[in-house]
User: Fold this.
Amino acid sequence: MAPRTMKAAVAHRFGEPLRIEEVPVPAPGRGEVLVKIVSSGVCHTDVHAVDGDWPVKPQPPFIPGHEGVGVVVALGEGVDNLKVGDAVGIAWLHDACGHCEYCITGWETLCEAQHDSGYSVNGSFAEYAIGNAAYVARLPKDVDYAAMAPILCAGVTTYKGIRETEARPGEWIAISGIGGLGHLAIQYATAMGLNVVAVDVAEEKLALARKLGASAAVDARSPNAVEEVLDATGGGAHGVLVTAVSPKAFSQALNFTRRRGTMSLVGLPPGDFATPIFDVVLKRLTIRGSIVGTRKDLAEAVAFAAEGKVVPTIERRKLEDVNDVLQGLREGHIQGRVVLDIGTP
Ligand code: NAD
Ligand code: ZN
Ligand code: ZN
Assistant:
């Protein structure tokens, strides 16, 4: 039995610290489950949510968090695909309509009626959270909760984003931004047989990139950064994945995309970047957005982690430290992913 109240980190006004409060434990509705949260990763998207960075904003008060892993403790009406005690994950895509043109073609991430965890519905920076039984990730029984948390967003998003570049085994992928997302992208790409060149603006992130298997690591601030990537890849990367939180990185990355290559945009810093028409046309470049991943993508991303092919670099903190973690992300100081220890299974 779940208690009546729970500890949660609540956003009340954009740009202000979250408040740690006692709030009611939500009750699962039809098709939903109540999840006791064990761990939650902290994504840079949580910073964008809390700061109200994007054109479509969440409605305060809200509880951020969309890399929640835990255990099902109660079933709403009509749930027959999960049972109490199952290990599950709450990802960004909380639910979708199930019947629009996107949902029926395996693109539920584009559903216009979707709800997003920690954004349009309450998320995982809390002792309990609601999951939709048809959308939660199913995790192995013996899952390492803290290590699995980053897969729920950073993992699936980069796994999908890499495939969206259409780079093939043996080819080159350039990954710009080696934070929570990028450090997993290196590992997915390597496991998928791609050669990786990593790009970031911090020496310690480039060192992590090399340790995780990048063949080359380039400092984006160097005046020769583009030439260095072109040299490392023999004329440009076939696929480019941009997870960086700076629009400048997007302009730069276009310049190291190989002819006929595809640049997959994943990072979501507020702003724009210029796309030189001449280059895009004459090099036949593809510029493509990529948003998280479907339930199938998520299951595959989880499998890589469960098999030990992708191992998140994590730092474990307490829920009470969440504002400090968000500030660390704003300042670019976090290595890998911070995972909040919230409860016990
Ligand atoms: P993070 O803060 O952990 O990592 C961002 C990295 O970008 C840092 O390592 C930072 O040093 C690097 N960076 C900053 N400026 C750079 C530059 N000019 N060139 C290269 N690197 C630079 O953030 P994260 O959690 O990995 O998230 C990254 C972005 O991806 C955020 O904007 C987030 O909202 C977005 N995101 C998108 C999706 C999606 O589905 N498209 C999903 C999750 C997160
Ligand atoms: Zn995220
Ligand atoms: Zn839909």
